[in-house]
Amino acid sequence: MYFRFEIVQEAIEKLRSLHPFFGISYLVCKKAQLPIGKAIPFSINHEEEAFLDTYYKPNPNSEYFFQPFRTSSREGGWIVHKYPFSGSQSTRTRGRLGGAFVHPRNTNLWGWSTNYIDILKQELDIDKVHAIPALWLAIWIYRNHNWQTAVGTKAIEDRLFSDFYVSREEREKLFLATVYRKQELYTDEAYSDKRLLQVIKPAPDSVPEVGGTLRLLEMKGLGPSAHLSFQPAERLSIITGDNGLGKTFILECAWWALTGHWAGRAAFPNPDQSLPAVSIKFEIAASKSRPESITIRYDWNTQQWPAPKGRPTLPGLVVYARVDGSFAVWDPARHSPIQREQRVAALVVSRDEVLNGLEGQIEGLLRDWVRWQNSSDQREIFETFCAVLEKLSPPDMSPLKPGRSIRIPGEAREIPTLKHPYGDVPFTNESAGVRRIVTLAYLLVWCWNEHKIYSKLSNRPPQRQLVVLIDEVEAHLHPKWQRVALPALLEVATILSNELQYQAIVATHSPLILASIEAEFSDSTDKLFHLRLTGGGLAEFTEIPFIRHGSVDRWLTSEIFELRQARSRESESILEEAKKLMSTVKPDAGVIHRVSGELRKVLPEDDQFWPRWLFFAESKGVKL
Q1: Domains in the chain: how many in total?
Q2: Which of 91, 148, 405, 445 is deepest in the core (most CB within 10 A)?
């Protein structure tokens, strides 16, 4: 039997007002059975250090100890390894608590003064704590202990008193007994300090785990919805909805949650927002880690979002393809020197900077492409680039293949080209759709190559997690291309590395994009989300079942796009009128003739609706 994790958390709260002396120095000295009224040789600093190492070190990889007692430190309870030689030593030799000891100055002689219990009691009263909560101190000390049977609170307290030789007088004057229902204390699940580290502030020297994905994004009082909660899927999350309801807003907030930086303008509360607590909550976790929630509240005074602090997990590579052609990139090997505040830089480049470069950050597609293609030592990355281009090419169009680089008028540099049936075309002259896909391919290959370089420089293994955010994945793409773009993007990660895992969050307006993923969509790793406008004028964001509709027409008339007919507005309007007329018991012949004339304007002769309409007219005695 083990103490429940929640009970240990409660103990931390109950001990928060207690002076650390009573949970550290007092127990160390009692354990050593120091004499009363005289001093003996005792290496108290080293003994305290060993005591802290035994009971106060939930993070074995840290040089710091964690104490749950009263503190004014900004470190949230974490104390340095030299604490027994500095802060604790000062407490023991100066001020009111110093009088509890017999300690000749500048010696290692220690003992209790004859009135030490009264001095300790006076200190507790001055602090308005009045007594040491015996149960909660014992729960903290024995949090990892396996109790053979579920003993009651008195037995737990007695164990503490026995182990640390606490006298009867001390129990009566210094300690508070607590009654707690036995069945609420225990569980069969072994307690783990690793779990505790997920709910307390990280140690100042702790290294955040790297390689997380977004598990939760929740916004309150922000955007078009009063409360929006998004739990992305493990692999693919598709966000749909009408214009202006918040698809891009969700992607922008997802990028901020992952990286701590806004790709463009920060999200701001609506001017009419009356709620004082506007917040963004998120969870980032690696595949085997328990996610920890971080909530950031909007600061109305500074009109800013405070930077997230003390992240226990950092994401892997993150690439955000924005709808305006700009890109944002975050690389834990390149942009994340381990800092306490994790205020790290991210690379945000405009469409022009992706093409032509940004000094000190990125050479740009035009230079890198030519360099990869023409340098023998860059052959591997160029072959990867070519493989990604081929994967992203629509199967019923010419595959995207690089041609030879050339000079063109007005350019002092060589320009890469793509092969077409009619000849090689400079990339700068390509269509918007080709440029978008090739640029995305370049950014993914460039990011992975840069990550490997910086990982090697920092003597760390490359990441195994890639998070890709894409706004309007169908932008500028021909329908033939829309049918293959998303499935192809999901396979790109395996081209970069067999060990690379992929989390994609994409926003789309296209029924072809949804139809294209029907064969690939898995309920265990993928999710479909929809934004819709409610009657109250707010956006509602929900996960909906992914139904395979088969044809694009059926996707258009599904709850995602909500069209009554997969036709023009004029066709839809007259068809709806015709259907209504067909349900009339005694329709007017003149109205049937008029509607027939309108149908001829918008429907082809072989439209499937004609047989139904002609049969209806004939059954009503109307010749058309």
Answers
A1: 3
A2: 445
